Amino acid sequence: MQETNFRSGFAAVVGRPNVGKSTLVNALIGQKIAIVSDKPQTTRNRILGVLTRADAQIIFLDTPGIHRPQHKLGRYMVGVAKETLTEVDVILLVVEATTAPGAGDHFISSLLRETKTPVFLAVNKIDRVKAAAIPGIMAAYSSLADFAGVLPISALQGENLDRLTSDLLRLLPAGPMYYPPDQVTDQPERVLAGELIREKVLQLTRDEVPHSVAVEVEEFREKGDFLYIRALLYAERESQKGILVGEGGRRLKEIGTLARQEMESLFGNRIYLDIWVKLRKDWRNQETSLRGFGYDLNLVRDGERD
């Protein structure tokens, strides 16, 4: 029987693009559930990660980075992040110690000042700065809003993550276990497969190409003693198709090899991965395409879809 002092709740992880939100959620969960790269706007959808302990359960909602959108996909991503703020018990604002607060941080802080939900501040990437600089950086970010707590962390090195979990738990109410103790995400393997492919595109391409690519998993089925996965990469321009394929098909093969290796490790199955590249012009501005690629535009208010 579950004890009455069990704590549980939902925590929105928000911040500017590329501050390490997905790396942090993966580290807190102890397993990769969200793709990561060194490029901003890697996360496009809200991703749920479940951390279960004997006395508590925290459901983290990893959100897209809040930025100035340039297309309908961007407006959707920002809308998802803002909508999530209204649905949680605590908000975890992630900033990076390597830069002073900028316009993006001030904008996000202005949104957070409008909510009554407690906001905890995590100053990430302290492994990249000198220890003597950390107090000043903490003070600069702490002045942005009235935070329920502030903590310097390194998601990459695991520094202060146990303390972060304990601090967040103190802000959660008593409640039930929402998910089974062995569940770490609500993402189906089919969706994870597509995201892992997109992660490798992000890692192996430059400039606008990675942000112009969508992945559609057409088939995901058992075939003998392995999983057969057929995926389509959609680019917006013919030149991007050429970059994705590479000379003699080498880049597409590398994308497939790296994605397959990680899938086999994650899923515990042999994988046959079949990837093709297609053209769909300006898909990021087409509502039909966005819905077709799995972006739930109903999560976003009408004013943010226009």
How would you describe the overall organization of this protein?
- There is one protein chain.
- The strands form 2 sheets. A 6-stranded mixed sheet has the order 2-3-1-4-5-6, with helices on both faces.
- Helix 6 packs across helix 8.
- Helices cover 32% and strands 22% of the residues.
- The protein has 9 helices and 9 strands.
- It is an alpha/beta fold.
- The radius of gyration is 20 Å and the shape is globular.
- The chain has helices spanning 21-29, 72-84, 103-112, 134-142, 161-169, 189-204, 238-245, 250-267, 287-292, and strands at residues 7-14, 47-52, 56-62, 90-96, 119-124, 149-152, 214-223, 226-235, 270-279.
- A hairpin with a 2-residue loop joins strand 7 and strand 8 (226-235).
- The longest helix is centred in the last third of the chain and has 18 residues, at 250-267.
